Amino acid sequence: MVSAVFENGNATFTNLLQHTSFRSTLQSIYQYQPQLNVMEKYWAAWYTYMNNDILATGLLFFLLHEFMYFFRCLPWFIIDQIPYFRRWKLQPTKIPSNKEQFYCLKSVLLSHFLVEAIPIWTFHPMCEKIGIVIEVPFPNWTTILMEVSLFFVLEDIWHYWLHRLFHYSVFYKYIHKQHHRYAAPFGLVAEYAHPIETMSLGFGTVGMPILYVLYTGKLHLFTLCVWITLRLFQAIDAHSGYDFPWSLNKFIPFWAGAEHHDLHHHYFIGNYASSFRWWDYYMDTEAGPEAKLEREERMKRRAVSKMKMKVQ
Ligand SMILES: [Zn+2]
Ligand SMILES: [Zn+2]
Q1: Own/partner pairs for 253-262, CB < 8 Å, 24+ apart?
Q2: 175 CA to middle of ligand 1, Å?
Q3: Which terminal CB of the chain, N or C, has fewer other CB atoms within 10 Å?
């Protein structure tokens, strides 16, 4: 089987590049494909060295997910140990204990291996069928940026409505309650959820790019890697429990961030969206006492103006 990483690649060319170790494969890519950028060289070396695209994609996604998840959670775990940072903790009296964090870690790891490993391993054959490509060179950065931005908007729609549904009676009781075990969340909580929730909310992350490629006919797997990494960072940061003066929501006012999602965990109601604030704003589902007060004021104003209309 010849890897599809080179668009016009053939067996002879792949054999020329392939070596017994990843390092020497990479060296030969450097020699014969100097026009590629560093990321593209590593990408091509990985697929050439593995010589099995299904295994290469499956392993790449699994390792990317594990590495990025724990790489992003680790700084939050360290910050929780340092009292200096408490001034920016959204619920400063609720510092997660190491025991709690360890319990969460065990559960998340189990879910990664049991629930998420299966779709990851069957991903490549589906990619090939629907037009997700692995070839080098990658698309240009503007295309990647536009596609990733679109996925953020689409995932947010999916997340808002499904998450809101998960707060209705039986859905909450049997599925979503698990994620709400922590009223003061921390980074690792991002993927602490019932398997049904992981799969269905996860559709927003994986399914939206699939719908996109079904419509447009082309998407690069590298774009998907960038998107999944950024989406992981967004979810972990939203659960971090910290709102810094340099947090992203201070520069992009419609970005949700930890401040938005922490209120959801604290009050169990409102702020259902993942990345942006606009759905909760327009649907009047913002969480917290301030939002409640504003809502009540608005209702009062509406009632008074109705009364006035009647009198006239
Ligand atoms: Zn919830
Ligand atoms: Zn949450």
Answers
A1: 253/277, 254/278, 258/90, 259/90, 260/287, 261/185, 262/90, 262/91, 262/184, 262/185
A2: 10
A3: C
Residues of the chain with pLDDT below 70 are 1-2, 8-19
Residue from 120, 136, 119, 123 nearest 213 by CA: 123
Distance 261 CA to ligand 2 centre (A): 6
Cα 7 to ligand 2 centre (Å):
42
Q: What is the pLDDT of residue 119?
A: 72
Q: Yes or no: say if 186 and 79 are a contact pair by the CB < 8 Å rule.
A: no
Ligand with the closest atom to the CA of 187: 2
**Which pLDDT belongs to residue 88?**
95
Ramachandran category for residue 81: left, alpha or beta (phi over 0 → left; psi -120 to 50 → alpha): alpha
pLDDT tens-digit map of 6-36 = 875 555 566 666 667 899 999 999 998 899 9
* Burial profile 111-126: b = 16 or more Cβ within 10 angstroms, e = fewer: bbeebbeeebbebbee
Contacts for 214-218: CB closer than 8 Å, 24+ residues apart:
214/130, 217/131, 218/131, 218/133
What pLDDT score does 154 carry? Answer: 97
- How far apart are the CA of 137 and the centre of ligand 1, in A? 41
Q: Give the C-alpha separation, 70 to 75, whole Å.
A: 9
- Give the pLDDT confidence score for residue 9 in this predicted structure: 56
* Residue 12 confidence (pLDDT): 59
- Which ligand is the nearest neighbour of the Cα of 238? 2
Q: Which pLDDT score, from 0 to 100, does residue 10 have?
A: 55
CB 223 within 8 A of CB 144: yes
Cα 113 to middle of ligand 1, angstroms: 24
Radius of gyration of the chain (CA): 23
